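From the shared-data thread, chain only:
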Amino acid sequence: MSERIDLSSAVKASLPVYDVPPALEAWAREQAKRVDNEEAPPERSTPRTRVRSWSASQWRVAAGLVLAAAAGWGGATAVTWNNSSPSAFTASQIVDAHVRSLLPGHLYDVESNDRHTVKPWFTGKTDIAPPVIDLSAKGFPLLGGRLDYIDGHTAAALAYGRRLHTINLFVWRSDARDVSDASLIVRGYSVRAWKKDGLTYWAVSDVAPADLDTFCKNFR
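Structure, as tokens:
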């Protein structure tokens, strides 16, 4: 039981807390006041029906708050992404795939610092031949490669090192949904995206943003 309580406390402590926008808070208070003032029809009013009606109304208000908060948070997030309007869903999947890759045994399907080993490995496994560039002289050694699946794309994932950190570079054939350029922070991870020669690239890492910019500049 104590272990369950400790886990619950740890989860609650790790959840982010956001300030409620004043306009949203005012709207919520007005809705709550309106619900408090509602009365059931006298001829059908019983303690049970009043409780049932009140509960349903409160659930509608709660649902409205969730939707309003989600819409507001989504809008605020889009603004912080340097007006590049990348897909929030894709960016979130990129970060999830990066974190998943750091679990034991998930970083690469082919482990090698030789691009002549990594690049041929993708032949027949994806519909692209991803560029694999040796950046060890620039301080970004190649670690290996693997397959991943991002936003409906089978992606070639290249893993590079930066001191004690890992950079994941996801590559797939571009389509109309893909952003042409993006520079953003998602859940504390630096993320960069660009298009080149019919391919879409997403780089992600917990390195300093300047280091990820240097990596992308050298790779491009």
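The two ends are 53 Å apart (CA to CA).
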